[in-house]
TrEMBL record:
SUPFAM superfamilies for the chain: NAD(P)-linked oxidoreductase (SSF51430)
Name of the protein in question: Aldo/keto reductase
Source organism (scientific name): Paracraurococcus lichenis
Keywords of this entry: NADP, Oxidoreductase
NADP among keywords: yes
Protein family per UniProt: Belongs to the aldo/keto reductase family.
């Protein structure tokens, strides 16, 4: 199985990665080591997950060339200005034991966000090689457009919730022509897809699993990457093999017809998603 790579305008991202929330400590280290052993080359973490040390230890233990791994981390929304963002990003690298990350994201917008100052901090981190590329997560389209149009630093990726039950077409329409990667989090809808009769029927026809169908649906969209979390090797291997599943037009139509308004991650600190 070969994981396709998205050749974006500002980053080159393997289109399947491992999500690491909410794993911590030894469980997280084991999961990341297992994933790297199976062939995952894209790992997603964040300062808020409290697992950057474990992720860094797993990367070190894997002994792979660093250039082969695409590592993302994110700075929490309580660092709304350039100075605090910079300090937090440096602390992330220290915990990860890494000289750089491949992608550094603003984890959530907040009303206190001083966008130009954070973008300027990200530009500097990128220039200094501490972050190969930068981007944002959980930004609605209007705010994403402000970040892009500020023209302070190229926005390489947007990470948002995206799965068979939640359309992100407005964001895809924005990102696609600009070569911005859209990284889909919660891509198997936290496992809900396993109970869905439509998805189970498609899976049975292909000799695949519902999780693989959900991931293949995302991978059928150009510019989309998915970062399912799975603690154990069997499920990690199952999810990775989704890269080989090709859905036909009838499958895609049936999946497109599923209701698309179900948001599973909607904390009080989240933005107005339609902004
Ligand atoms: N930027 C953000 O604000 C944000 C928010 C949420 C998540 N994320 C990132 O996205 C990653 C993934 O999102 P998520 O963890 O919320 O949701 P998810 O990947 O959709 O679901 C993970 C859950 O589904 C199970 N699962 C995994 N593969 C499966 C399969 N093929 N079939 C059935 N069940 C399966 C996992 O169980 P087991 O582990 O027991 O296998 C786990 O309980 C996170 O780990 C994190 O890195 C980012």
């Amino acid at each position: 199985m070969t994981v396709p790579v998205f050749e974006g305008a500002h980053t080159r991202m393997p289109r399947l990665g491992l999500g690491t929330w909410p794993m911590r400590g030894a469980e997280c280290q084991r999961a990341v080591e297992s994933a790297l052993g199976l062939g995952y080359r894209h790992i997603d973490t964040a300062e808020m997950y409290g697992n950057e040390e474990a992720v860094g230890a797993a990367i070190a233990a894997a002994g792979l060339p660093r250039a082969d791994i695409y590592l993302t981390t994110k700075v929490w929304h309580d660092k709304p200005d350039g100075a605090s963002f910079r300090r937090a990003a440096e602390a992330c690298l220290k915990r990860l034991g890494q000289p750089h990350v491949d992608l550094l994201l603003v984890h959530w917008p907040s009303p206190r966000l001083d966008l130009p100052s954070v973008l300027a901090a990200m530009a500097r981190l990128r220039k200094e090689g501490l972050a190969r590329a930068v981007g944002v997560a959980n930004f609605p389209r209007g705010l994403l457009a402000r970040a892009v149009e500020a023209d302070i630093v190229p926005i390489a990726a947007l990470q948002v919730e995206h799965h068979v039950y939640l359309s992100q077409q407005r964001l895809l329409d924005y990102c696609g022509p600009r070569g911005i990667a859209l990284t889909s989090y919660t891509p198997v809808a936290k496992g809900m897809v396993a109970e869905d009769p439509v998805i189970c029927r498609i899976a049975a026809r292909h000799g695949a699993t519902p999780g693989q169908v959900a991931l293949a649906w995302l991978l059928a969209m150009p510019g989309v990457a998915a970062i399912p979390k799975a603690a154990g090797a069997a499920r990690q291997a199952e999810n990775l093999a989704a890269a080989d599943l090709v859905l036909d037009a009838a499958d895609l139509a049936a999946l497109a017809a599923l209701p698309k308004g179900r948001r599973l991650v909607d904390p009080a600190h989240g933005p107005d998603w339609d902004a």
